[in-house]
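Continuing from the previous page of notes. For each protein in this section, the sequence appears first, followed by its structure tokens. Read the first protein now.
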Amino acid sequence: MDYGLQQLALCLFILCRLFQVTAEDDWKIATATLSRDKDGSSSVNIGGACGYGDLSQTSYGGYSAGLSGKLFNRGSSCGACLEVRCVNHIRWCLPGSPSAVVTATDFCPPNSGLSSDYGGWCNFPKEHLELSHAAFTGIAETRAEIIPVQYRRVKCGRRGGLRFSLNGSSHFFQVLISNVGLDGEVVGVKVKGHTTAWIPMARNWGQHWHSSLDLIGQSLSFEVTLIGGNTIASYDVAPPYWRFGMTYQGKQFHS
């Protein structure tokens, strides 16, 4: 067997093993890059399309990721936890293929001016993650431009309760929900004032939920439903004298 055929056989063997492992324990195949600021420096905290703001002020810390459109799913994946590991690259993957758990906090936009295989890593339907500095350097060499990875959904471990950050006006009520445990991925929210029934809210963007209500002066309760079907109600989270711009804490999901 000549050298070329040997290389082809080796590549086929590696691909077969990769697909076999993926099928056996729910790992899926993707690519990943290190998120960088406009000046080219590595970015420690990724905020943005999910609405979490400065991640250094949240429980997500430096372990965060921006997702390509297919994974981001129009913002419904915000808050989900992914375990990621670098695979099948001797030069760039750290020895032993250690993994890092990240929270989906942002959207990685497509770049139609570049090929999906060269620069347009987040073009649809690519499955790609832009990892924060702490996450990327925990699984691969910083110098790597792009790495092959495997990822899978995992349960989110959070300290403290759900956080409800209130914004809006007398005719528009909006809440950002963060620090969500278990699935992490919120698919339904209801709000209740002390004089109202439970009122469904709509997703505005990311994990911001809204309703055209005037709830000023009422104590607020929230019901949150996750993608796995779990629902939890936090009663009287905010007192009647709550203010826009404030954050209040409710109950937490536990496995």
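Done with the first. The second protein uses the same format. Note its length before scrolling.
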Amino acid sequence: MDWQVLTRELSLYLESQVRVGLFGSGVGLSLVLGFGVAYACYYLSSIAKKPQLVASNERFCRFLEEYCPVVTETYYPTIWCWEGRVQTLLRPFITSRPQVQYRNELIRTADGGQISLDWFDNNDSLYYPDASTRPTVLLLPGLTGTSKESYILHMIHQSETLGYRCVVFNNRGIAGEELLTPRTYCAANTEDLEAVIHHIHNLHPSAPFMAAGVSMGGMLLLNYLGKTGRDTPLMAAAIFSAGWNVFESVESLEKPLNWLLFNYYLTTCLQSSISRHRQMLEKLFDMDLVMKARTVREFDRQFTSVMFGYRTIDDYYEDASPCRKLKSVGIPVLCLNSVDDVFSPGHAIPVETAKQNANVALVLTSCGGHIGFLEGIWPRKCTYMDRVFKQFVQAVFEHGNKIFSM
């Protein structure tokens, strides 16, 4: 949609509102139309922009331009809620929730714990009727997210239309299952993810296999890929709204407005996720002290860093920051971030480091917030993030041989 078309449509809409009584004079009409045109010009000149594609590998760039063209197209954020915080707050409430029927599986871990996997088998797939070779996407939700999150449901819906199978990795103790050991999860420890990836690959060794992680799920996936390099069953990965530098993320979230809008709520979600396992966790932690935390940093200091044996919270945050492992990623990875994401500030995105790894491509939008990326006048269905996900996984599964020889 170009400037003239959008301006004309907005002017016609405003004029129709005037005719039904919004304003009763020619002066009012002129003011409304003038404001509308000015706003449209500002939106088109300063808000709607093509994303920045950062990739040192020209072959990877050409692959994305041909098979995932959405990363080179202008992103038009919803005209009435383009600001990052607003997009972040509205997305869970405004986007639809596609119906998905899961098959749950509980797998045991080496330490005696259990992990809940939710499978969308897509047995009605017309494109891949043979389950043994049906492409499979492993999905990793955010910090306290599960298979019920709207962004996960939309990814599954997109995958269903392409004939793919999906598996959602629910972190320990989050999806309703009991904790069998006093251990939950964190962004730095990849043991559970490694177990899940090998479990899925062993079940379907002939099926093309990739993963997509959102927010903390993306951080965990990046840390896994930085650890394993090329030694992974995954063909490629997609990362959305990952926090690249945890120090910068928590500092941003502790600014007064961000604490009020996000940090305190997220802290209460973390506390809620462990409160039902209090009897198990009290064996190792002062739960009364943990439940008094008022920021994510306080929660991590009293609980997460202690659980995983870090000497200090700074040691944990350094280990959890994917920016420190990006150079070691050994498979094609596409990472989508918005530079106005308060969870992952634009200045902390490792652009220069990404340029040093031929396997990495960053797609940076000027707007979109954290897992927002709303577009369209009434963004109920598909977001820009959904379109990037769909095009990239399809590109990998159907044309991936063109980048795997990079």
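What the second structure shows: The mean pLDDT is 92. The longest strand covers residues 114-120. We return to this in next week's lecture.
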